[in-house]
Specification:
Functions in the N-end rule pathway of protein degradation where it conjugates Leu, Phe and, less efficiently, Met from aminoacyl-tRNAs to the N-termini of proteins containing an N-terminal arginine or lysine. GO terms for molecular function: leucyl-tRNA--protein transferase activity. Belongs to the L/F-transferase family. This is Leucyl/phenylalanyl-tRNA--protein transferase. Its EC number is 2.3.2.6. It is a single chain. With 238 residues, the protein is α+β, with helices and mostly antiparallel strands. The chain has 2 domains: 55 residues, Alpha-Beta Plaits; 166 residues, 3-Layer(aba) Sandwich (Aminopeptidase). It is built from 8 helices and 11 strands. The strands form 2 sheets. It has a 7-stranded mixed beta sheet with strand order 6-7-8-9-10-5-11, with helices on both faces. A 4-stranded mixed beta sheet has the order 1-2-4-3, covered by helices on one side. Helix 3 packs antiparallel against helix 4. The chain is globular and about 50 Å long.
């Protein structure tokens, strides 16, 4: 059964999703609804010509920061200092570039204009964050997502130079680990993320871990200073 959402920003239990993970349709992308969704392990994903669709996949792909795998070749790239990594310095540009990046087997971007507006609002409220990779003053890669409690919900990434988004991702995960984040929610399984050590867990386990992680206060606001404080920056060699 697929639920049709009302004007109230509430959701049915994620375990009510169909076998593909589709839980509900409709509603809006208000900040309150989005935050409620993430706190319940639900995320929006839909095509430009589709109504808003809400998902809770089973199994769920998760990366536990302590299990991050960094290939030797990527370690060399990170340690070379080829890319300068920043946090929350170019969120709108990262969002735009993610939307414009072609995806295999996708006709157009799922980051439709209303999604851009919604996540920009979450960024302004201090819940959505970006990580940027720069080279010679140019933005050449990055990613964005949402943080609640001690969970980071990854949304999308892009790169204009090889390894740029990978370096941004690795540095983010290492910083999250130092700040005692327990999970990076990858939402859907891809070979790319599996190579970094992500693994599938049952939805029931994911929801249990999510509930525990939300017992901690959310680190709201701009993360630029938070993730560059001494001993916790994103510029550490591996």
């Amino acid at each position: 059964m697929i639920y049709r959402l009302s004007e109230m920003p509430f959701f049915p239990h994620p375990q009510e999703a169909d076998p593909d993970g589709l839980l509900a349709v409709g509603g809006d992308l208000s900040s309150q609804r989005l935050l409620n969704a993430y706190s319940c392990g639900i995320f929006p994903w839909y095509a430009p010509d589709s109504p808003i669709l809400w998902w809770s996949t089973d199994p769920r792909l998760v990366l536990f920061p302590s299990e991050l795998h960094v290939p030797r070749s990527l370690r060399r790239v990170i340690n070379s200092g080829r890319f300068h990594i920043t946090v929350d310095t170019a969120f709108p540009e990262v969002l735009r570039r993610c939307a414009e990046t072609p995806r295999p087997d996708q006709d157009g971007s799922w980051i439709v204009p209303e999604m851009k507006d919604a996540y920009t609002r979450l960024h302004e409220l201090g819940y959505a964050h970006s990580v940027e990779a720069w080279r010679d003053g140019r933005l050449v890669g990055g990613l964005y997502g949402v943080a609640l409690g001690r969970v980071f919900f990854g949304e999308s990434m892009f790169y204009a130079e090889p390894d740029a988004s990978k370096v941004a991702f690795v540095q983010l995960v290492r910083s999250l680990e130092r700040r005692e984040y327990t999970m990076v929610d990858c939402q859907q399984t891809t070979a790319h993320l599996l190579r970094f050590g992500a693994r599938e867990v049952r939805r029931s386990e994911f929801l249990q871990r999510l509930a525990l992680a939300q017992q901690y206060a959310t680190e709201e606001g701009n993360w630029s200073e938070l993730f560059h404080e001494k001993g916790n920056g994103v510029f550490h060699q591996l």
